[in-house]
Amino acid sequence: MKLVTLINTDITEFTVDVIVNSANKSLLGGGGLDYIIQKKAGIKMQNECRRIHDEIGGSLANGHAVVTTAGNLPSKFLIHTVGPRWLGGTKNETEELCKAYLNSLIKANEVQAKTVSFPSISTGVYRYPKQEAAEIAIGTVLSSLPSFEHIEHVYFVCHDQENFEIYKTILSSLDDPNIKINIS
């Protein structure tokens, strides 16, 4: 049985196979969580991001994801995904956010990760409404998780209390016979 756990902690200090980074399009660091991850992961990971940046022509499209080493973080890999900026909901933001979660799971499965941690993508400096973003995250992960052979456990890691409470309310109301849901 697959597991989904909600936890309130610092994603950069939580040990899993894969940490998902809510990255900016350049992959060269930005604000918020991306800045923290870039700084803590260190130069080896930053150099991989520079190499990928050059290979893709400088910009990763919204919803896409790439894999690098985790550097100094307590995981094997980082998956950098670009979530959408909130532009009022009229610029395909929902589809792009869904793709960011799904493509991150695809990449995690490709590297045979058993455990994956997700932040609340796009709800910080990109200002995606937190309730809607949580619904998209949970819906995308729960509907697609059974199809991934390697991934056993997904963690939703909320650093702030507001996101944690939103995720908790949604997850507490769900009952999926194929996925065990934990809230800690």
Give the % helix. 25-40%
Strand order of the largest sheet: 3-4-2-5-6-1-7
Helix-strand string: EEHHEEHEHEHE
Spatial extent as radius of gyration: 15 Å
Q: What portion of residues belong to β-strands?
A: 15-25%
> Overall 3D geometry?
globular
Describe the protein:
There is one protein chain. The chain has 184 residues and is an alpha/beta fold. The protein has helices spanning 32-41, 43-55, 93-110, 130-144, 161-172; strands spanning 2-8, 18-23, 65-69, 77-82, 115-118, 153-158, 179-183. The protein is built from five helices and seven strands; from the N terminus they run ββααββαβαβαβ. A seven-stranded mixed β-sheet has the order 3-4-2-5-6-1-7, sandwiched between helices. A hairpin with a 7-residue loop joins strand 3 and strand 4. It is globular and about 45 Å long. The model has no long low-confidence stretch (mean pLDDT 96).
Task: Report a brief summary of the structure.
The protein is of the alpha/beta class and 184 residues long.
